[in-house]
Design a protein that fits this description.
Layout: H1 2-29, H2 32-35, H3 48-69, E1 73-76, E2 81-85, E3 91-94, E4 107-108, E5 116-122, E6 127-132, E7 153-160, E8 167-178, E9 183-188, E10 197-200, E11 205-211, E12 216-221, H4 222-229
Antiparallel strand pairs: 1-2, 1-4, 2-3, 3-6, 5-6, 7-8, 7-10, 8-9, 9-12, 10-11, 11-12
Length: 231
């Protein structure tokens, strides 16, 4: 008997709910007395898809830029840093602090360890120019410092020597501030990638990375690099 009462109450409640929702409530909300209390449905705009699309596009652009300039990066083994190839016949630039006088070095270019000659050092601007044997090396374009913007996305690309075979490492961030003497970024990294070229998202050279004591990355601007190498 209890079961039948329960089922009867359940069925009556269900039918009553459907009646109220589908018939009774729509009837009353259209009456003049209730019009001023009527709730208008607010349109909902979905932005997540756009944000995800932008995120994917930015990361694809970063990946493509990194692949484009990977062969322009030179490894500096003894000081565990990197440099930038600037001519296809083997001239590259790195930080002067990575190649101090009186030391022996090894440079990793296109998966080889070619012979080299250190041509000049400028310790004031922390730059050195080196020539390695060979040819057909890849180079990258130079960014226009006058067109660089605060907040512009940049990335560094350099070699790590944690194993017997050097491996490229990438880190990315934005430009916090800059002038003709220094470029400040929000990137944090280790001294192992000191001298890594800093590129914009188009794959053009912005500067050479210098890792500060706290790991904060700043860069020698491309204008100083061009003045030093003579073009």
């Amino acid at each position: 008997m209890f079961l039948f009462k329960f089922l009867a109450i359940f069925i009556i409640g269900t039918v009553g709910g459907i009646f109220a929702d589908q018939i009774l409530w729509p009837y009353f909300v259209e009456r003049p007395l209730f019009l001023k209390y009527r709730l208008e449905q607010t349109p909902v705009y979905v932005t997540e898809r756009r944000e995800i699309t932008n995120y994917i596009q930015e990361n694809v652009a970063l990946r493509e830029a990194a692949e484009k300039v990977a062969r322009t990066v030179v490894g500096v083994k003894n000081s565990k840093g990197s440099g930038l190839m600037v001519t296809n016949d083997g001239f590259f630039v790195t930080l002067a602090e990575l190649v101090p006088q009186g030391s022996d070095f090894a440079f990793y270019v296109d998966a080889k360890w070619p012979n080299y000659e250190i041509l000049k050092r400028d310790f004031r601007n922390n730059l050195a120019l080196i020539k390695v044997d060979g040819g057909g090396f890849a180079t990258a374009g130079f960014a226009d410092l006058e067109k660089i913007k605060i907040g512009e996305r940049v990335f560094l690309l350099g070699f790590e020597f944690s194993s017997s075979t050097p491996k490229l490492a990438v880190n990315e961030g934005i430009i916090k501030t800059f002038d003709k003497d220094i470029i400040q970024t929000n990137i944090l990294d280790t001294s192992a990638v000191n001298g890594s070229p800093l590129f914009n998202i188009e794959g053009n050279v912005v500067g050479l990375s210098v890792i500060g004591e706290t790991g904060r990355v700043w860069a020698v601007p491309v204008t100083k690099i061009r003045q030093f190498i003579g073009f």
